[in-house]
Every structure is written in structure tokens, then in C-alpha cells.
Amino acid sequence: MSESGPGRLTVFAPAKINLTLRVAVPRPDGYHPLQSLVVFADWGDTLHASPASDLSLQLDGPFAPALAEDTHNLVLKAAWALRAAADQPQLGARLTLDKHLPVASGMGGGSADAAAALKVLNDLWELGFSTRALAEIGSVVGADVPACVWSRPLLMEGIGEEIRVLPAWPELNAVIVNPGVPVSTPDVFRALDRCEDRTGFGVLSRVPVAGDPAAALALAAAGRNDLEQPAVILNPVIGDVLAELNAFDAVRLARMTGSGASCFALVDEAAMASHVARALSESHPDWIVRPVRLAGAA
Ligand code: C5P
């Protein structure tokens, strides 16, 4: 966390990548038990918080217009949840969200912003909640928020609230591609329930602890994203993205993240990520393409 300006705090809200995502049949409340290997990119939004008597949120950055209509912004929901948990409803802050991640893109941007709000306000208001406590508060804001509070390589289970931080995981090089189509997460889950018969989870019940990139890659490759097939049916452009990524020799694994439409491709070297990203940006100027590093366990 860095400070710039009197009393102003800043936190980074990194993009979430589901290297694998297994989804079981829904519970009676409609939520789906899942199992996911999650890592975070060095690309994301930034949230600033300054002392103020009222709670307010200003939107900035390239994707601010896409959020402007949203009256249920997860940043404010998180701030309200934190004030309630602290039993201090009077607390105020001036929040500014620098929005760099495309909205409704499967990278957990809204959840990452909510998690960043919990972290930055916990510090600004000197509440002293632990990471575990912030993750629990975040679970009522959104299913992906606890993972984003931890924001390090982890296994996510339950409906997102059961987190196992991985003690060993290597940094990976990747390219993220978003074809610019917003995707409704509930629609994709509903499409999955219609199109597939699912009995349980796959390989991730064997704990994925891997220190070297080859083992991590093998583990990711052995998994899948159960939401990919229904998302491709709803938005065929996702299939185009995956096909284009798979056409590069350097790409070891191409897969959709979350409920889409963003996809990632794992490559061995940062230079390969830059090469793939440059080539795709040229052939598809309407796609958002980004070479990234997916952080390893600290
Ligand atoms: O909790 P959140 O608002 O992020 O979830 C968005 C939607 O995704 C939910 O309304 C639900 O339809 C679906 N979902 C699900 N099972 C999960 C997580 C999300 O069905 N484990």
C-alpha cells in the first residue's frame, strides 16, 4: 500500500484468473458449489481513499463510463458492509476508483474493487480487521470477494468463501484477451445447468502445491473451466478467442477465466507473452489484449 497526498491511501485491485474452475450442481439457494485454482495478474484497477466526513465514490480511468450507470457498485456495498461489521455507520471516506479492467469480463474486477475497498478502508479507519475477517465480511458482497481479499495463489471452494492459500506456486507468464462482450454470470451458470450433466469435481481435490512452472502448468492443464462450453454457446466470439490463442506455438494452455468472456493463455517467457499480445492486438484491434505476469506465492 502506498500513500500519495495528505492521508490518502491507495490499493491495487488485481485481475483474477481462474486457472481451473469446476462447478457442481446448484444448491437449493441457486448458488453452485465450485472448486477453482485462482491466481492474480499484475494488471488491475486502483482504488484511492482519503479522509472525509461522508462516504463517496468517484469513477475514473478507461472503463469508468461502463460503471457510471451502476447504482449497486460493489465498492460502496463493501464499504457499507465494513462499516456495519465495525458497528460504526458514521465513518466516511472519499473513494476514487481508477477502472482499468473491462466490466463483466470474468476477471473479477468488481469483486477485486470490493476487496480493495475493504482493505483500504480497514487501514484508513484503523479498524484492525485481519485478512480472514475482511474475507468473511466480503463474502456477503460477492462470491469472488474473499478470494480477491487474499489476492494470492489459492484454492477456492464452497461457493467462493472457502479459501486455501497455496504455500508454493510459481510466477507464470500469460496473455489475457477480452473480446469486448460483457457476459452475465447468472446467464452462464444457467446455461451450464441446461447443457451438462455434472456429478462432481475433478483433479483439484488433490492439493495443487507446485513450486515450478512446469508442474503448475501440468496441474492447470489437467483441469478445465466448466463454464467455458456454455459461455461459448452464449457468446461464440469466446470460441474465436480460444482458437486464435491456440494457433500460437508459444501458447501452452488457453482457457476462459470465470464466466468469461476474458480468456488467458499461458506461455513460458514474458517475451512470448508480449509477442502474442502484439500480434493479436494487430489482427483484432477491437479486442483488449494484455501480456501479464500471474503472481506466484510470496
Ligand atoms: O456472488 P455474485 O454476485 O458474484 O454472483 C453472481 C451470480 O453468479 C450469482 O447471482 C449466481 O447466479 C452465480 N453464482 C453461482 N454460484 C457461485 C457463484 C456465483 O451460481 N458459486
TrEMBL record:
Keywords: ATP-binding, Isoprene biosynthesis, Kinase, Nucleotide-binding, Transferase. It catalyses: 4-CDP-2-C-methyl-D-erythritol + ATP = 4-CDP-2-C-methyl-D-erythritol 2-phosphate + ADP + H(+). Gene3D superfamilies: 3.30.230.10, GHMP kinase, C-terminal domain. Its EC number is 2.7.1.148. The active site is at K16, D144. Belongs to the GHMP kinase family. IspE subfamily. HAMAP family: IspE. This is 4-diphosphocytidyl-2-C-methyl-D-erythritol kinase. The gene is ispE.
